[in-house]
Amino acid sequence: MATAHGGTTAGTSQTKRPRRARGPATPSRTPAAAHDRDLLRQMLFIRRFEERCVELYSAAAIRGFVHLYIGEEAVAVGVHQALDEADAVVSTYREHGHALARGVPPEAVMAEMCGKTTGYSHGRGGSMHLFDAGRRFYGGNAIVGGGLPLAAGLALADRMRGESRVTCCFFGDGAFAEGEFHETANLAALWGLPVPFVCENNPYAMGTALAREHAQTDLAMRAASYGMAAWAVDGMDVHAVEKAARGAVESTRAGSGPHFLEMRTYRFRAHSTYDPDGYRPKDEVEEWKRHDPVTGLADGMRAAGFLDTDAQEALDHEVMEAIDRAVRAAEQAPEELAEDLLLHVTGRHEEAAPS
Amino acid sequence: MSARTRPRAHPDDGTTTYREALREGLREALASDDRVFLMGEDVGRYGGCFGVSLGLLEEFGPDRVRDTPLSESAFVGAGIGAALAGMRLVVEIMTVNFRLLALDQILNNAATLRHMSDGQLGVPLVIRMTTGAGRQSAAQHSHSLEGWYAHIPGLRVLAPATVDDARHVLSAALADPDPVLLFEHGSLYSAAGTLDPAVHEVDLDRAAVRREGTDVTVVAYSGCVPKALEAAEELAGTGINAEVVRQAVQRVVPGADFTGLDPDASLRDTFEMDSLDFLAFVEALAALSGRELTEDDYPALDTWNGCAARLVAEADAPAHGRSG
Questions:
Q1: Chain A closest CA to B116's CA: distance in Å?
Q2: Residue A229 to residues A5, A80, A89, A326, B6, Cα–Cα distance (Å)
Q3: How many domains does chain B have?
Q4: Does A169 touch chain B (CB under 8 A)?
Q5: Pick from B194, B216, B232: which residue ends a domain?
Q6: Position B213 in a domain
Q7: What interface predicted TM-score (ipTM) does this complex get?
Q8: 3-state class of B219 per DSSP?
Q9: Least-confidence region, from A75-84, A145-154, A165-174, B150-159
Q10: Is B28 a catalytic residue?
């Protein structure tokens, strides 16, 4: 499914290669190839990062609930191609991929997951609550659908001040069944708020299959009924995701109100580290794995001459080294002191307390 | 003509109603700070379910006096999001019972984001709502849930009780870096009073003495303050000089240390009446009396050096009749 020819950027490379002063065109040096390598590096990074998280969880270095994004990497990485630094992102409890794609340093993400003070929330948030105010990454919300109204409010503030920023809101097919989704979709459409809604339809609400939780499973069609542009996207194809996200974000930014993208994707792992994963057939999982967004992109790049074995190995090495560094840093970082528990309960206390 | 159709100007002699005093507070906030806006069900064209915001739409426009759909969770959550983005807004909810539909946003987002993000994300949001019984509105419009909310770390819970409270509470609440819940007792909106020209602000941390007295101290909040003042006047006729203290923050103080209290000092001076809740008070009495108190002792505590302390509370029922 994912190929090097699927998206606007990559497709352009096939029809209009950059002119060169001399010598034959080298596919691996085109801007399209560089862009694909960047996409691949980011997706691979999320994949390997989370695989390492599984190991750390088994070793009890990470505790609490951990929800893996493996299989859905194309959505986070593709959507972030369309966002600017000034935009805001509201995420879910399955947000490691979103945070990394947003540019939150992996050292900070890993430390937060391990409950260490070098995490951006001092280890208080953990896996489900990654926050980075500086990058306008507003978490990380353990309540299904709980982030949706926040996104509307962030966008409302921008709208009232005349800012051209958007607030990208990630959520899943489970959240689509929550009242908060429907209230927020109506509010955002009513007020024309600059929110690209990105629904990651993976298609299980924990253990409940889409058709067992929704009378009508065409989520994009239902979202369109609120009066916003909405369409379904192959969420396993990073180029398709990027193309759709660019269209939705540009239109939203231009003042066309909220847009809704139903990203049809799949998680290859269980819902969380507590989940025995007994509710879906093995052959279904295997079928979706045939559309793996990471290997799909890599295969397409090889076919287009964008990637050879050496480049792949170099990329693998680079990614693993960066993850090793993040893990080492997290292991060495201190845990928060118990006496700091009451810090930041309120702003007043914070002001009164010694820093 | 009622206050619903004709907003009254602030009279020169300082007499006003609780409703008008709240409106003046809102008007002042909207006029003095561009970041401030008001949002809620029927706050604009209708003028507010209880007429508090009547006339503000015409004065400040639909962007800043913003009518919302009947989607409590979405617009309270949107208020939290706007506050995160640096706006300073007031969200109005018709009644405390409707507020339950937004409890997820209040508890899981507004109250927790600052702590969970290690101080990165504060939520300076004011949420107003009507509370209390006694208006023949039946149970679903009558609960007093201040105590519930007061048990949630991260929230500040206030119950303005007099026209002075109503007039000045908002500027203090908007200046607070955290979510502030204002509980406005439904029976107070039409209560008239005279603004004290010496009062220009409400101290969110300290209780206020609403009547000086020497013989007995009555501590109350919200709709019970006017009742306490009324009772004090009645007592004065019998020769008893009662002091009435309006409690400040409805909040439990974890680990508060009340040992070593001086039973001869006045109740107000001893406790400073800040952040005091009844259970903490009972614990303090228990420590002083040297015996464990149980719920059986609550109706009539007579253990503090002969000083009687008595809890007068609403009946433990979902609603009350006409008099509350």
A1: 5
A2: 25, 19, 20, 40, 43
A3: 2
A4: no
A5: B194
A6: yes
A7: 0.90
A8: strand
A9: B150-159
A10: no
